[in-house]
Amino acid sequence: MMSDRQPKDGDAADEPAREGAKRFGATGADGKLLGFSTLAVHGGEPRPKLGNSLATPIVQTATYTFADTQEIHDHFQHRIEREEYGRYGNPTQRIAEQKLAALEGAEDCLLFSSGMAAVTTAMYAVLSHNSHVVVTDDSYRRTRQFLTQTLHRYGIEVSVVPAGDYEAIEEAIRPTTRLLVSESPTNPYNRIVDLERFADLGRRHRIKTLIDATFATPFNQRPLEYGIDIVLHSATKYLGGHNDLLAGAILGSAELVDGVRSLQAITGAIIDPLAAYLLVRGLKTFALRIARQNANAQALAEFLAAHPKVTAVHYAGLPSHPQHEIARRQMRGFGGVVSFEIAGDLETTSRVIDACRIPQIAPSLGGVESLIEQPALMSFYELTTEERLMVGIKDNLIRYSVGIEDAEDLIADLAVALERA
Ligand SMILES: Cc1ncc(COP(=O)(O)O)c(C=O)c1O
After folding, report:
1. Would you say domain 86-283 falls under CATH 3.40.640.10?
2. pTM for this one?
3. 286-420 CATH fold
4. Ligand 1: does its nearest atom lie under 6 Å from the Cβ of 86?
C-alpha cells in the first residue's frame, strides 16, 4: 500500500509563483515531505495571495492589461511571467492546477471545462492522422465513443481490448500505435489495471500511456509513480467533491502538459475562474472526504457481499475481487464506488433503487452526497438488453457512489430497500 507521505523526493519547497509570491512547496520547515492533508489544504497556493486574501481570489476577467509596450515585449520574450488573455490562462486556474500537481506528484497540470474536454484535447494533442490507439473496453463510454466514432472519422484507428488483458493489449499494438488508454479502477466494474505492467508495455514499445484515474483520485493511487505518462481526471467527481462544478485535468511531465496547453489555447475548452475556485475550495477537504468515502464504500461492499439477494459485488477492497492483490499493491484505499448485481431483472433492480431513501438517483459520482443509478437505465438507456449485454452492462447492475454520510445509515437504508424489492 502507498505511504502517507505522498510527494516525490526532489519536489521543490516554496517555488516562485506567477504572481511574484512564493508557492507553497511539498516539504516542511524540517525538509521532510508533507502529508496529503497538508498538501490538500496548502499545496500549490501562493503566499501571500492577491490583496493578502487568505482564500483564493476568483479573478473574474476575460483579458489582462499591459502597462506599456515594453511589458508586451517582456511577456512575449518570456522575461516575465504574467497572463495575457482568458483563453490562455487565469490566476485562479493556475492555483488549482498547482494544488493538483502537488497532490499527484506531477511536474504540471492543465485544467479543462470538463473531464471530456480533457480527454478530447489531450487526444487531439497526442494523436495525428493514421495514428492508432489501444483502449480498454471497460472505460467511460464517451471516451470510447470519441475514439471509435469521432477520431475514427479523422483517420485514427482504434483497437478496443479487454481491461487487464496485457497479452491482448500487446497483440493490438501496431507500428503506428501512439497511445495506450485505460481507466483504473474502471467504470462501472471497478476492474484494476496493473499500472506497472501497463506502463512497461508503453515503455517497451515507445508508446505514451494514459490512465483515467477519476475513480481512484491521487489520494488512493498515483499512476505517474508507476511510469504512466498522462494521468487524467474528471475533476467533476472526487476532486471537486460537491457536485457543483464541471472540470477535467491532465497531469504529467511539463513538456507533455505544455503541448496540450498549446492546443487548448486554440481549441478553448478552458475552466472558468469560478469553477477553478470551487475546485480549490473543494480540495481543502479532499483527504478527509476520500478517507471517509473509502471507509464507507468498504463497509457497504462487505454488507452487500454477505446479502442473500446480492449475486455479485464489484469492489476492489474485497478479497474476492479478481485484482484485489494488485489493488492492494498500488492503492492506498479502493475508492467510493461500489457496483453490485442483485437477484432479479431490470424492474426488480429499479425497485431497489426507488426504495432507497438516502442516495439520490443521478448520474455522476464522487461528491459528498451518495448517488445511486442503474447503468442500464442511465448511461445505456437507448440500448436494448442484448446490446447492453454486448458491452457488458447487465440489467441487474447497480452503481452506488458513496458519499460522506454515516456508513451505518447507508447500510440500514439499503437493507430495507433490498428487503422491499
Ligand atoms: C471515468 C470517467 N472519465 C471521464 C468522465 C468525463 O468527465 P466529465 O463528465 O467531467 O466530462 C467521466 C464522467 O462520468 C468518468 O466517469
Report:
1. yes
2. 0.94
3. Aspartate Aminotransferase, domain 1 (3.90.1150)
4. no
